[in-house]
Amino acid sequence: MTEKIIHVCETINSSIEQGVGELSVLLPDLTNRILQVMEQNKGNLEFENDCIEILNDINNGISNRDKVLLIDALESGLINVLDGKCIKKEKHFKKENFERKNFEKIREFENKCLGNIEETKKHYKEELEIKVKQAKTGNTIFQVRKNEQEFYLSGKYNLAGTLSCLRTEIEAKTKIVFLIGLGDTNFVRGVLEGNRDKFVVIYEPSFQIFNTMIKNIDVSDLLDNRNVGLVINGVNKEEWINIINTVVVVENYTLLQVLISPNYEYICEEETKWAVKAIKDRVNQITVEWNTTRYFQDINEINVIRNIKFMKTEYTLNRLENLCNDNVPCIIVSAGPSLNKNINDLKRAVGHACIIACDTALKPLKKAGIKPDFFLIVDPRKPETLIDFEFVQDIPAVVHFSVPNYILEKHKGKKFFYWDGDNFVYNALVHAKDLGHKAISYEESLGILPTGGSVATSAFSFACGMGAKTIILIGQDLAYTDDKTYADGTFKDKMDKVDTSSENNYIEVESIDGGKVKTIYNLKMYLEWFEDQIQKYPNINVIDATEGGALIHGSKVMPLQQAIQKECLAEWNAKEAVERMPKLLDKEDVERLDEYLQKVSENAEEVKDKIKDGIKSYKRLLSLSKNKNVTNKKIKQVLKNIKKINNYLDSNEVSLLATGCLQDIEYSIRTGMYAYKDSINDELNEVAKNGISYLEKLYAMVALLEPELKKNFCQEDNCGELKE
Fold it and tell me: C-alpha 71: how far from its chain's center?
């Protein structure tokens, strides 16, 4: 009883302090009631002391975050200050105050979000029964009833214990916390307490729970917290993936933690799964992309150096935009095990569809006597033996500058290049087009080909870019159909079977015939990429005519013969369409590119000298880091020199090329950037060691690339001798 009275007094006093208005009339009456209760309990010293303390608290002024306790206390009957009519009036007044205060805070930073909330209020369905209650600790908690089951969004009896366990569960190294479920805010406040250095992103799957919260709890402090991001289903749901893609990067993806507020996996099962999957997809994407970059690190830039000359004579992918009209479907031929089942049926589509071959499917296509209209290569290590150069002589290739040079040299057909993000390629094109600091326009650029990590996913994006309204997939098993990795006639005339019994390496997915089929994790990721793209482009009719392998949800499963009979009706000549395409660079552009490449080839020695200076500066910093009495002035001077050298290296073309070959060491440095150190000296020591290690390897890589630069970039009679 005493605790309840204390809460009431604190609440009334806090309300008066903040100018709540009508509640101020309660103060004299409440004081008199407390005195009466003291008189009635005369002799109970503990109770009398509590009441005296309450009166002092009222006079001294106390604030209470949870003002709704007043209403709960009055309703409980422990203090009969107000009659039923007045209680009802005060409850309504309090709710309006919370809601108004919260909306004012939302309006400060996001008017659009406020409008979305008001709009969603008009249409959402109340699927849950939510009761606002009070925990034993005094906190406001929500009881949610769904499907005849009751759930609390926070602990009813031991909330403090629950939050204490939660705080110990959050790892010290964690920098980003993704929290599914805002609920009654107790859980998120528990996450934030003691973790002020962490960025917390919240997804509330239920608009009904959010609406209840906004009326009953003051969350203006959360809305005002710059370390908190809030996404609400029905209001700004699309921001969840945008935020994930923005904040989760290679430097911190190992430092994030995902938490699900109590009982959300039952109350909002599907939305919770969706939110968690979005995070997993981003982490998988970073992992695959980074591992791919690291795998190709030693060959990517060598290929770029050797292939940049093709910029002078070849074409940009942008020239092929909207090449296919509405009546011309694209058929993507992949090299999955099921390709052998229906590859001969593909002959009927020649001249009636745009046939796009993935590189590994070229040999089976040759054997079947089918020439595709285009073929794609994305792998910088693609084996030369997979390409029959006589067969592909006049077939246009879709490539980027990092694909194997030996393939581009032997292929004599047209090459349509796209940009894969290489900085050197971008700078070369800017100089060729004489754009200075201006951004490259879409018409002048190489174009971008969104990829899900494989040549088949790139081919799908290529078909979309050409304007295809119907895309037919064959050989797209995305699984080990009949325990095989590829179609017969790719790497071998007869492909060997593999043992797929290991649960560690293989997983089961739904097959195209309704059963199950074994696959591996990267193929499953490609499968999910196709499914996401089909959802993203609902106006594109995707037909899976693979006749084997994994089921691609969202596609129409159809035999190839039937798909051709239904979709491949118009006449189409790819060769005629491609012949009209202008080249990427004109004569003046080529001259500017030659000048630029010549300057780059002459710059390697200067870069090596700068790297040597950088190593000396880092060694000086290492020495200073071991001296506990070193002055800030000395440290600042060394750091200033290091910054100047790093700025030079970050903008230098030779350095950028060499950096592209050092992804392993860059990865270890970038992922260790957020590691906690005990002191400034320890941090300086770590920075110095990493700097020395990185620059030593950068120097070695520049020395390794220098002969390639001279050989491929130097104009004849302008090439100097290499220094030892």
Answer: 45
User: Would you state the pLDDT for residue 364?
Assistant: 94
Choose among 694, 661, 698, 658: nearest CA to 296: 661
Q: Roughly what angle, to the nearest 10 degrees, separates helices 45-60 and 2-17?
A: 10
Backbone angles phi, psi at 470, to 5 degrees: -130, 130
Q: Residue 376 in contact with residue 458, Cβ under 8 Å? A: yes
- Residues 6 or more apart whose CB falls under 8 angstroms from that of 100 comprise none
The one-character DSSP state at 24 is G
Compute the average pLDDT of residues 212-219. 85
> For residue 260, how many other CB atoms are within 10 A of its CB?
16
pLDDT in tens, 623-666: 888 887 778 888 888 989 999 998 999 889 898 888 877 765 55
The Cα diameter of the chain in Å comes to 110
Q: How many CB atoms lie within 10 A of CB 247?
A: 17
Place of tokens 């035999």: 559
Q: Name the DSSP class of 555.
A: S
As a whole number of angstroms, the distance between CA 602 and CA 706 comes to: 9
C-alpha angle with apex 384: 378 to 386, nearest 5 degrees? 80
Q: How far apart are CA 388 and CA 371, in angstroms?
A: 12
| Rounded CA separation 141/160 (Å) | 13
Report, as an integer, the average pLDDT of 425-454. Answer: 81
- Six-digit token string for 188: 């998120």
Report the first-to-last Cα separation within the chain, whole angstroms: 89
pTM here is: 0.64
Token pair of 1 as six digits: 């009883």
3-state secondary structure 118-152: HHHHHHCCCCCEEEEEECCCCCEEEEEEECCEEEE
Helix/strand/coil (H/E/C) assignment for every residue in 672-698: CCCCCCCCHHHHHHHHHHHHHHHHHHH
Write out pLDDT tens, residues 245-295.
888 876 677 778 888 888 888 899 999 999 998 898 888 777 766 665 554
Closest CA to 140 of 240, 218, 46: 218
For 374, the token pair is 């285009």
| Torsion sign (Cα): 218, 222, 225, 231 | negative
> Residue 73 in contact with residue 15, Cβ under 8 Å?
no
What lies within 8 Å, CB to CB, of 151 at 6+ separation is: 143, 144, 145, 262, 263, 266, 267
